[in-house]
């Protein structure tokens, strides 16, 4: 794939392509029961400055088109989250299935991603921070967002929509009432606009999965509000037994050439969940030892 610029050394890429992917292939039976849920953001050149490839979230339109055509050529078909949950629960063979998700609701989903998805016969779920979607195109912090009119049009063409909160808040800094508002009002607003129940949620920012009290608390609210499933930034493929509101995903960006994309789809990237989890766990405990209360919900329970 035509990737521009100098590619910085990537331990995650080397370990994935040359060690973990070959190992994952040796235990290929797991392919049938694990589903790669790909996490895209903006389909554009990098909006957020020069970051290490691991941290970038944008996928250029040309690389995105190549990735989709490769998926199609390789025989992948897309399913949506409810179908995936159903299939995971019933033990159905899920080989060569993939779920495509797009966080934040950038307008380039309409202009650059959707035409390619349509050509390939693929579907996707877009997670909206409802306050950033307006009746006229809004440019917030340098990025353009979908309009409600575009959301309705995309929905009529088979695209699913989920909640990504109201304000794209960092939930760790919110109190219980604010969390209720972020989860409840975004759901309500999107439902009013597209006329169907919103059942999927995408956690904004990094999921504090090491804080079990917090994730359990959040899962209870999601359940009570009528959500049925959700995705997170935890790395990995979705599998039976995962917490249904914080399913792991595979982050994708412009640096995912065919070799790395294929390795991710086939389980070669799942190992990164452990260093990711350990980093969060260590960070969480250092914060606790430093006596910093960064969890208002925890402190009120
Ligand atoms: Zn987001």
Quick overview:
By secondary structure, the protein is α/β, with parallel strands linked by helices.
Bound molecules: zinc ion
Largest sheet: 8 strands, parallel
Quick one: how many beta strands?
10
Task: Give the overall form.
Answer: globular
* Top-tier CATH class: Alpha Beta
Core attributes:
disordered C terminus; binds zinc ion; two-stranded antiparallel sheet; alpha/beta; 10 strands; 301 residues; 41% helix; TIM Barrel; 14% strand; globular
Structure commentary:
By secondary structure, the protein is α/β, with parallel strands linked by helices. It has a single domain (14-300), classed as Glycoside hydrolase/deacetylase (TIM Barrel, Alpha-Beta Barrel), CATH 3.20.20.370. It is built from ten helices and ten strands. The strands form two sheets. Strands 1, 2, 3, 4, 7, 8, 9 and 10 form an eight-stranded parallel beta sheet that branches. Strands 5-6 form a two-stranded antiparallel sheet. Helix 1 (11-26) crosses helix 8 and helix 2 runs parallel beside helix 4. It binds zinc ion.
